[in-house]
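Teaching soon. Got one?

===
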Amino acid sequence: MKFSDMKPQVFSLAQEAENEIRPQFERIDRIAQQNTLKVMQAFQDNKVSDSCFAGTTGYGYDDVGREVLDKVYAQIFCTEAALVRIGFVNGTHALSTALFAMLKPGDTLLSATGLPYDTLRNAIGIEGDCHGSLKFYGINYAQVDLKADGTPNIEAIKKAVADKSVTAVLIQRSRGYGDRPAFSAEQIGEMTRAVKEVDPSINVMVDNCYGEFTGEHEPTEYGVDLMAGSLIKNPGGGLAPTGGYVVGKADLVERAAMRLTTPGIGGECGATLGNNRLLFQGLFMAPHIVAQALKTATFCSAMMSKIGFETSPAPDEVRSDIIQMVTLKTADNMKKFCKGIQSGAPVDSYVTPEPWQMPGYNCPVIMAAGAFVQGSSIELSADGPMKEPYIAYMQGGITYESGKLGIMMAVNEMLE
């Protein structure tokens, strides 16, 4: 289907939706301006120059751009150190590397926000029996579930960390494939304070995937010890071709570097292969690109609400990640929604998404993603597990204008 084939009703709904959500757009723009100032200040303070964009090969010794980028990330996230590398193959890799930096055999990891995201469960050892998981190395796992309304159970967290075997706490910021809200930096700070009140020596780590630059503050400004995420989500600005980051206390970041490469080498090696410019430029663009994704998500919520589907967040809610949840109720609706998103993409628009058994997931998943970077969640995409109640998780949109068209195509498909 072509854009010109869209029903007149879709254009009318889009105009109504935009009029209603204009106050949300104004708030999103204010946040983007503040975060742009933060990024610009870090670029200038660390003297980013053309020489930073040259790539290295082989061992990657003395890579000036790589070293400056680490300093820029550390300043933006208000941490002692950072490890930003294209050697991270995805967000789960960065997260598991950070977990290994905090834990040793005999320790216990506590998840304070319920069951972690699907792909991290194998790395921890909650599911599967993977060689090299935390469980494989004798690291234990415990969990505090969220309250019925999806908010953190602070008293239960305090009680759990009183167990002297707990040495690290994991907080997942985004909803992942869960039916609960994302957490703001301030809410994460409340959980962190609860842990530290019981035992200040316990390290708190945040899975910040999908959350960077959605608010004026980051979790590391509220006492978090370590944080990790993916460069093909928010902080890569749609330009980073791959990679991930770990930020936090210097000793923990150094341990993560030793895990990523090898003990004794750490962050001293790692050729950037000409990618430095894309990582710097993507980070520079990130506050604006995240704002585009937030606007697209808000528009999606408004449009899908208008045709009778339950959405979370609601159109007028403050957002702490870029994910928009739409409850579609049937497998057929799920396929139609994803087909519409795919048909509105700049890449592979002619493809019809079909469910398949993706690595790391315990049921078939359908994914619509016509992206310039494979799997890039900051570009417009929609996916979800093919099981009741058939919830689609839409995210991304590197320009609001194109994201809006993608949502309109999805709505048109739903109205067929």
